[in-house]
């Protein structure tokens, strides 16, 4: 029986070393004997790199960060609507997701399983640079935390009146083959623990200037995101401060803002996923879903297009544009994710700055206005005279439109979701539809999994 522990990890022994082969989700079902063989196949630190790259590869498919996870989050906000050009994302934008076709669950747990292979290794038995081996294990802890956090936000009951999160899987071949859902609080604690461990064991000397591999300060960057989501303001402040004080990142300037989405490894990028001319989702990419007449399923709402930015000089207005397809004209995202081979940012420095500003505001300390204004100052936009929660949330919306963050801001601040264009919706805070159903394939495979309310029928 397939389940989240054995469903997706496919490893191959090639010339005495370990590499992750390119497998579909249909053939990723190793036996326990194969798992043990794979675990014992490492003799050198260099052997870890193939699995490390495979771990990152699990984050990049269209069903995860390559498109669906980010666009689905955006499609559930008033920013955009699904125009039905190719029939994609209408279901998600309408809050009518069923319990089938939820491949994000598959890919996230595939990344977790691959991370667990690296975490479980006894690196003291390996030949080579053990500092680098520990650094790779630190990257695995960070990915395990990130994927579980994405799953928790999507499937957890923290905004629907319940207490259940997701199964937090910490072993590649553990004895618990049918894990139950943990609580939201237990999930949160485990995510924090993994990020803290990642930060502790990663080596600053292995900083990756391409930003395509996780470096030491990615861990506190992600921790600040998690802490803001849960309202753990002291933790958010301290984690963001670590990143700021590292001096490794900066807010991108106004004249480079649009170009930063076409250029890889920019000054504001903390962690991004790599795509290439010969290795990308193709027609399932972000580019195809946000623009073009073959797909182009995502349109900007008129209200967002007209009113999001108060100043015409704000460089972020250049992200918007119009596109004519036949007799129809659509309002589009033309600036972000400009090419199918463009890298996709998982987290950038501007988010850490705004996390810090919000934490200072909530704690009533420091100068949150200074940090809030750091963003509009670099966008040729009007600055704020006072700092309020509303101003912080508005700046986040303006800065991260199309990047999939606004939906979580609406939920964590307990707001209703209202859209009067396209898929007209009025989703009150607490509505069961704001949490996705556990996939039917997982329910069939795992008798210990409990479905979310509203999807049992």
UniProtKB/TrEMBL annotation:
InterPro entries: SusD-like_N, SusD_RagB_dom, TPR-like_helical_dom_sf
Gene3D superfamilies referenced in this protein's UniProt entry, alphabetically: 1.25.40.390, 1.25.40.900, 2.20.20.130
Chain coiled-coil ranges: none
Subcellular location: Cell outer membrane
Broad class of where this protein is predominantly found: membrane
Signal peptide: 1-22
GO CC terms in record: cell outer membrane
Keywords: Cell outer membrane, Membrane, Signal
Highest taxon of source: Bacteria
Keyword Signal: yes
Ranges where the RagB/SusD domain occurs: 341-455
Positions of the SusD-like N-terminal domain: 36-226
Family: Belongs to the SusD family.
The name this protein goes by in its record: Membrane protein
Organism phylogeny: Bacteria, Pseudomonadati, Bacteroidota, Flavobacteriia, Flavobacteriales
């Amino acid at each position: 029986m397939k389940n989240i522990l054995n469903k997706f990890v496919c490893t191959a022994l090639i010339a005495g070393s370990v590499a992750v082969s390119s497998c579909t989700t249909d053939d990723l079902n190793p036996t326990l004997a194969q798992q043990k063989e794979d675990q014992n196949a490492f003799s050198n630190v260099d052997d870890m790199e193939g699995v490390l790259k495979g771990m990152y590869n699990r984050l990049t498919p269209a069903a995860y960060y390559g498109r669906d996870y980010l666009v689905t989050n955006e499609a559930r906000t008033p920013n955009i609507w699904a125009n039905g050009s190719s029939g994609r994302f209408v279901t998600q934008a309408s809050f009518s997701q069923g319990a089938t076709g939820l491949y994000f669950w598959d890919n996230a747990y595939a990344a977790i399983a691959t991370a667990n292979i690296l975490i479980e290794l006894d690196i003291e038995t390996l030949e080579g640079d053990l500092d680098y081996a520990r650094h790779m294990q630190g990257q695995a802890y960070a990915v395990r935390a990130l994927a579980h956090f994405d799953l928790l936000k999507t499937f957890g009951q923290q905004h629907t009146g319940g207490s259940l999160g997701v199964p937090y899987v910490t072993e590649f071949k553990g004895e618990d083959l049918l894990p139950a859902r943990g609580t939201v609080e237990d999930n949160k604690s485990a995510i924090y623990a993994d990020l803290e461990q990642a930060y502790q064991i990663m080596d600053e000397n292995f900083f990756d200037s391409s930003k395509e591999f996780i470096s030491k300060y990615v861990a506190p960057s992600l921790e600040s995101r998690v802490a803001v989501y849960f309202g753990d303001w002291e933790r958010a402040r301290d984690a963001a401060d670590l990143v700021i004080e590292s001096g490794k990142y900066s807010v991108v300037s106004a004249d480079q803002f649009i170009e930063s989405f076409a250029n890889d490894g920019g000054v504001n990028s903390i962690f991004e996923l790599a795509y290439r001319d010969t290795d990308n989702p193709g027609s399932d990419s972000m580019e195809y879903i946000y623009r073009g007449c073959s797909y182009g399923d995502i349109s900007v709402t008129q209200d967002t297009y007209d009113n999001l930015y108060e100043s015409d000089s704000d460089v972020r207005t250049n992200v918007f544009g119009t596109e004519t397809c036949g007799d129809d004209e659509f309002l589009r995202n033309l600036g972000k994710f400009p090419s199918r081979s463009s890298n996709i940012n998982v987290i950038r420095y501007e988010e850490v700055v705004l996390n810090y500003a919000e934490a200072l505001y909530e704690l009533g300390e420091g100068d949150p206005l200074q940090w809030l204004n750091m963003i509009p100052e670099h966008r040729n936009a009007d600055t704020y005279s006072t700092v309020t929660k509303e101003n912080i949330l508005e700046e986040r919306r303006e800065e991260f439109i199309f990047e999939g963050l606004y939906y979580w801001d609406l939920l964590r601040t307990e707001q209703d979701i209202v859209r009067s264009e396209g898929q007209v919706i009025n989703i009150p805070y607490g509505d069961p539809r704001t949490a996705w159903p556990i996939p039917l394939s997982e329910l069939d495979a795992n008798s210990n999994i409990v479905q979310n309310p509203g999807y049992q029928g």
